[in-house]
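Work Package 3 (structural annotation) set out to generate three-dimensional models for the target panel prioritized at the project kickoff. During this period the team completed the workflow that converts sequence records into discrete structure tokens, so that structures can be stored uniformly alongside our sequence database. As a representative example, we reproduce one entry of 179 residues exactly as it appears in the project archive.
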Amino acid sequence: MPNPQNKKGLFQFYPHNIIWLGLSVLTILVDQWTKYIASTHLNYADPVPVLPFLNWTLLHNTGAAFSFLSDAGGWQRYLFTGLAGIVSIVFIFWLMRMPKNSIVLPAAIALILGGALGNLIDRMYLGYVVDFIHVFYQDKHFPAFNIADSAITLGTILLLIDTFFLEKHRIQRAESKND
């Protein structure tokens, strides 16, 4: 008789990973809350100085992260909505299957998932993403972004750190256990 403890497969989830879904939900909540504040307290395209290199500037982004394809004519809304939906489902499955000793990789996935869903909510209900963080230096301006974009960026950085630095250590540990 097969041992249920040793089952492997696509739908094998670990309950300890609920905490990572919690990080995704927290990311979504903070993102939506800050977008609500920006939308209700800022005038569209009217910068409010915060620091010598930072303004709050309410903008509506119909493109992808950092305004990529924002002037493409409308088809990008459906593309990015579908892409975010598919990637989110894949990331939820990946996240729920993380081994207990992993920290950096599930944190990265949770942040990317939360950011993607935060922007997906805007895109589905508003037809655009609310951006309000505007960083600049003298006459050099970085495209406006939001908390979801920041979470996606931080998650991607963590994912790269995990891939290029931590994966090698996991492989070495696994090999030493097998010796």
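The longest strand covers residues 129-137.
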